[in-house]
Amino acid sequence: MKHGKSEEKSEYALFLGCYIPTRVPSMEKSYRMVLDALGIRLVDMNGASCCPDPMVVKGIDYKSWLVLAARNLCLAEEMGLDILTFCNGCFETLKSANTMLKENRELREDVNGVLGKVGREFKGKIEVRHAVEVLNERKEELKGLVEKPLTDIAVAVHYGCHLLRPSTILNVDNPLNPTILDRIVEEVVGAKSVNYRRKMWCCGAGARMGDPELSLRVLREKLVGISKSGADCIALVCPFCHVQFDTGQILIRREFKEDYRIPVLSLPQLVGLAMNLEPKQLAFDLHKVSVAPLLEKIGGVA
Fold first, then answer.
1. How many CB atoms are closer than 10 A to CB 292?
2. Within this chain, do residues 123 and 199 fall inside the same structural domain, yes or no?
3. Does residue 209 fall inside a structural domain?
4. Closest to 282 measured CA to CA, from 296, 299, 262, 300
5. How far is CA 264 from the centre of its chain?
6. What does the pLDDT look like over 72-88, one tens digit per residue?
7. What integer pLDDT is reported at residue 2 of this predicted model?
């Protein structure tokens, strides 16, 4: 089955997941503001659980992972709306489960046998989208909302692992040479997207629980490359990566005695600045690494 571009829609079932509300609420707030400006209505999914995450739960009990994901998909089906998520991990889980269950009748019947015990049935009636896909499809409209192009800013984008792979299912961009974030940064925000060493590396967040030292070493490699590129900030779309880059810089300062202080922004925060939204509205006060140097450079209020 080919997974082509979806038609533009103006209403979605919002799947927030666990990590954004608890650790990166600034990502939720900025996405809501930018999408609202585009006329996109987000309907909260009452009763949704963890997606569940595409690494730990999936690795421990594959069937439980699939059934829980299917239950979340059923909630959106009952709402009659496609799912929109801001989280890379939630996106990979929900879109992968949705695709597998649609294409594999035997697997679908097995999962529905479990779901039937709680009065639900997966029917395969909805699609799963990542918010960055919607922003990319609405680039021309988004450009029309930009009041303050960030022409003097250099941005290091970080894609994360779960936005692009498995590419045959997620179908967001070329997994080896993606450009979707770079294009939004340059064509919408007006900034320069810089290349840097280790750009396509993982940020190291996934190793944090098993090997914290390795996690920091991987992050340090990323930060060295970003620092040498002359980037004014990092822009990303994954809440797990956001915490790794933001809190991780403090941990690296303690461990390696290296002080990077590179502001970490979610992509909608960067777009929001170009739309001339107030920094306070974008919740930069919740960040560990100060965004003040970036705001001063663009003439914002720290």
1. 15
2. no
3. yes
4. 300
5. 13
6. 999 999 999 999 999 99
7. 31
